[in-house]
């Protein structure tokens, strides 16, 4: 029996090695990112196909020396180096340890983060880390941390994490969605005028996204979007009346506009093209229903949404994350 078991055991071990080899190989060649995104894997598969096509094309040329054909593989490598650059950088950022101070900020100021599972928290942190690694955020008047004397904004890492958390909330559960990184984020010391960007006394704009320009935030509005305590506690406790619509969240609002601008050549229609076509149609109809409800005074959305479709989408996003129970019940 033992003489029979030995070949079997060796065969099993060999089989196990073979089985372990392929997942390890495919994990290396075609990995799914820690955030659940398949984008890098897709790039590697495409690069392999491009390389193979190059190989076959060169091999098919008559009288071409056989040693030249493998150079076709270089095409795949070139494709990968150029087109997967953002995804490769993203993976590098995801693999770096997340700073404990940032985690503390999320725990203290982002209620949604505390409600996530451990895996979701790691992914949320990943989005924050990637956002901070890719996105330029600076105070009005400079690219680096500014002293109050030069810009009147003291932009801290905590502010940066809160801005990043606003984007991460929108991207949660959508590992293959990407926000553009070509818009700088400029933080103003106070509200500003929509037309002139001056901080005159009656200016009331707290956030803005240009069609092809930067994202602007008033620093106070970022602070208020992530109150250290629930605002109903700090403004009168349980006796304080429930506000008619969700508390404003400038981060969610402006990043909703950024999503809306994606792929629409500088337009924002209130119906993001990143949604599947069927969902786009449904959402378009829903916007119409909600506009009528707002006109009738029978909506839980902020009436600012009546300004246009893009604003209606942005205030809907705010309500979805800030007041989801009432939104669902309505
Ligand atoms: Zn808006």
Structure characterization notes:
This protein is mainly alpha-helical and 330 residues long. It folds into three domains: 19-92, no CATH class; 97-228, Orthogonal Bundle (Cyclin A, domain 1), CATH 1.10.472.150; 252-330, 3-Layer(aba) Sandwich (Collagenase (Catalytic Domain)), CATH 3.40.390. 55% of the residues lie in helices and 4% in strands. The protein contains 15 helices and four strands. The chain has helices at 2-29, 39-59, 73-83, 85-94, 100-109, 111-114, 118-134, 148-151, 157-171, 219-225, 231-234, 250-261, 277-295, 309-322, 324-329; strands at residues 137-139, 185-188, 207-209, 215-218. It has a four-stranded mixed sheet. Strand 3 (207-209) and strand 4 form a beta hairpin. Helix 2 (39-59) packs antiparallel against helix 3 (73-83) and helix 5 crosses helix 9 (157-171). The longest helix is centred in the first third of the chain and has 28 residues, at 2-29. It is elongated and about 75 Å long. It starts with a helix and ends with a helix. The model is unreliable at 1-7, 143-150 and 234-239 (pLDDT under 50). Zinc ion binds at residues 253, 257, 311, 314.
